[in-house]
Amino acid sequence: MSTNNKAGVRFAYIASFLTPFTLLLSGIVAIIYSGYKLNKGTDAVSYSHYYTIIRSFFMFFTFFVVLGVTAATMTGMLAGAEYWVHSDMLDYVLDVLPFVGAVIAVIAVLKWLFQLIRGMRLLSQNKAIEL
After folding, report:
1. What global pTM score does this model have?
2. How far apart are CA 14 and CA 8, in angstroms?
3. Contact 78, 97 (CB under 8 A)
4. What is the pLDDT of residue 10?
5. d(CA 35, CA 46)
6. Whole-angstrom Cα distance, residue 16 to residue 68?
7. pLDDT digits (tens, 9 = 90+) for 14-70
8. Which residues are CB-neighbours of 46 under 8 A, at least 6 positions away?
9. DSSP state of 11
10. How would you write 15-70 as a 3-class SS string?
11. What is the pLDDT of residue 1?
12. CA-CA distance, 15 to 67, in Å (whole number)?
């Protein structure tokens, strides 16, 4: 892997790593850059890293969209049920539900960040990520 390719992959990893802190902006830049580099042609090691960056971004983006829609739907259903059936248990579940979603989201973000760190370590060793 050439130094130029390694610098490009490193840029994509750093931009992808900053995604949760830049409200998706740097992640979008990372996948556009990675897609451009894949289209332009690159060696096998760079290819595996660029492909993994794109794949993990869309996988976790889809996860968070599904999590948000599920949480909103569940909260709406519980709020409607609590309106008709006044129950302390439903009120408690309605209060706890956002925290459960937040815990799931934090675990997912940490898993994603650890995957990126693992990819950066493999990049520094000039090893490809198994696809």
Report:
1. 0.80
2. 10
3. yes
4. 93
5. 12
6. 21
7. 999 998 888 889 999 999 999 999 888 888 889 999 999 999 999 988 988 898 898
8. 1, 5, 6, 8, 9, 37
9. H
10. HHHCHHHCCCHHHHHHHHHHHHHHHHCCCHHHHHHHHHHHHHHHHHHHHHHHHHHH
11. 67
12. 23
